Amino acid sequence: HCVLEEYQKTKSQPDWDGNTQILSLCAASKNELMQKLDALNAQPKWEEWRRDCFKSRSSFDHRMDWRLLLITRKGESDIAQVIQKTRESLIQFQKDKPLPPGVFIEQGQHSGKLAFLFSGQGAQYPGMLLDLSCLFPEMLDAFEKAHSLQLKNQAEAALLIDLIYPQTTFDPKEAEQDLLRLQDTLNAQPALGVIELGAMKVLSRFGLKPDLTAGHSFGELAALACAGAFTEDQFLDLAFQRGKCMANASTGNGGMIAVLALEKDVAALFEANGISLVPANRNTLNQIVYAGPIDQIDLAEKVLASNGFKAKKLQVGGAFHSPMVANAEQPFLKFIQSNIQWNSTKVPVYANSTAFVYPTENIAANKVLAGQLAKSVEFSQMISTMHRDGPLRLLRSGQVVGYLAWYLKYLRAKSIMQFPLTQVRVRKQASTILLCFYARLRLWALRWILPNGMIVLLKPRLKSMGSLWR
Question: What is the pTM of this model?
Fold first, then answer.
């Protein structure tokens, strides 16, 4: 037999296959939760397990004192083994103690604001969020919008989807060329833009919205779009234009270097050795990225190493966030003034260059957005300001790679809970990570108030989530 379906121009539903399931249990006490866990069939067939998971989600109450969630995947999870490990974890449960992968346990209630944090250039990689692009119509819609702009402008040689998802190759040299093409500033920034737009639209499908937003470098543009400062088309247009301005300003004789040391110690060393570099990213108190001419970067690398400092040159196309790219500011400002009509933001957006909330007045906002290109990213101070304005739970849009590894330690030190949307190094599917993220937030019982006063829980739209929730 052959079943045919009428072709539809647009993708209307996610392609969930039901192979990833969430089990959700809640109870008033630890003993009651253990009893519910023990009552489960430890060796069920997958269809039976799916029914058990659906029943558990239907009765889950985030207000209960004890909450437990499991993420399981068909063909990858031994249910009996998962239940046994979960039982052992529950017996030995202590807050902030690591749990087995896919197991989430929480006791008591929590408060805090949910922040979306968007990654900047350097977080891109071929194949990013591939499975989400295959699953969700929102991702495809973001690509369609970007491609329409590309075809309209007739300036880009390759479509973004071909740069982000190149053809499979078994030739290491071809794979390296694919990576280099995506790393090009002209391509990297709009590529991040389309992926981050798609990701925020996917999260919106789950009913997930931030209380505040921010980004690192390019990510600030995505944070503004997420907050509703401009339309999706305007955001993508800005992403293409920002990439062009930054690429044109990069003459090839500038670079950046990350240093693990206090700024005052590095400044003294640079002064003593006649090194002319400026702080470009103040990421933490003891992790600063410096920018300047290539010869000064090379000299700094040697001097730092000889004096026992840890440092790493960055694979970037210029001395970004420094006076060396100041000539990108005016063209970008002119484009913003001519093409962008600002909207009132739905939530606060924090600026890299000031570490405070974006100004509400259009002229001032234009100057902050364009001026950010040549000013240092005050990331450490920005996160501190956000945390001061309300205890944070951070959702990261991008992968922490290379010199961004400081990020994890910094957030943990500030007791800020964070959730990544993608983890390349552990080779997990983004869809599974998305569900783990959902599980964590369900445990933390985070919620927000809509203008009409309704409290919205972190719950997907059941009708549109297909077989996953059946």
Answer: 0.82
pLDDT value of position 393: 60
**What pLDDT does 383 receive?**
85
Over the range 443-462, which residues count as b (16 or more CB within 10 Å of their CB) and which as e? bbbbebeeeeeeeeebbbee
pLDDT (tens digit, 9 = 90+) per residue, 442-469? 554 433 222 222 222 222 222 222 222 2
Q: Which residues, given as ranges, of the chain have pLDDT below 70?
A: 110-111, 154-157, 391-470
Nearest Cα residue to 128 out of 177, 72, 166, 181: 166
Q: Which of 62, 119, 216, 321 is catalytic?
A: 321
DSSP annotation of 470: -
DSSP, collapsed to helix, strand or coil, labels residue 424 as coil
pLDDT, position 401:
34
Lookup: tokens for 321: 């966030």
* Tokens, residue 140: 């495809």
For residue 195, give every residue at least 6 positions away whose Cβ sits within 8 Å of its Cβ, in sequence order, or none. 124, 128, 129, 142, 164, 397
pLDDT digits (tens, 9 = 90+) for 262-318: 999 999 999 999 999 999 999 888 889 999 999 999 999 999 999 999 999 987 778
CA distances to 267, 352, 377 from 290, rounded to whole Å, are 10, 16, 11
Three-state DSSP class for 94?
Answer: coil
How many angstroms separate the CA atoms of 59 and 395, rounded? 27
Looking at residue 331, what is its pLDDT? 97
Helix (H, G, I), strand (E, B) or coil at 70: strand
Provide the β-strand partners of residue 392: 113
What amino acid is encoded at 357 in this protein?
A: V
Strands 113-118 and 310-313, how do they pair? unpaired
For residue 253, CA distances in Å to 27, 181, 313, 324 come to 62, 19, 14, 9
| 312 contact partners, CB below 8 Å, separation of at least 6 | 257, 258, 402, 403
Cα 263 to Cα 270: distance, rounded to the nearest angstrom: 10
Nearest-10 crossing angle of helices 232-249, 137-153? 60
* Alpha carbons 197 and 189: distance in angstroms, whole number: 12
Pairing assessment for the beta strands 113-118 and 212-215 based on DSSP bridges: parallel
Beta strands 254-260; 447-449: pairing state: unpaired
Q: Which tokens sit at 192?
A: 């991040």
For residue 422, what pLDDT is reported? Answer: 52
Report pLDDT for 407.
47
Concerning whether 321 is annotated as a catalytic residue, the answer is yes
Any catalytic annotation for residue 217? yes
Q: Residue 431's pLDDT is what?
A: 56
Catalytic residue among 217, 322, 376, 431: 217
* H-helix or E-strand spanning residue 52: helix 46-58
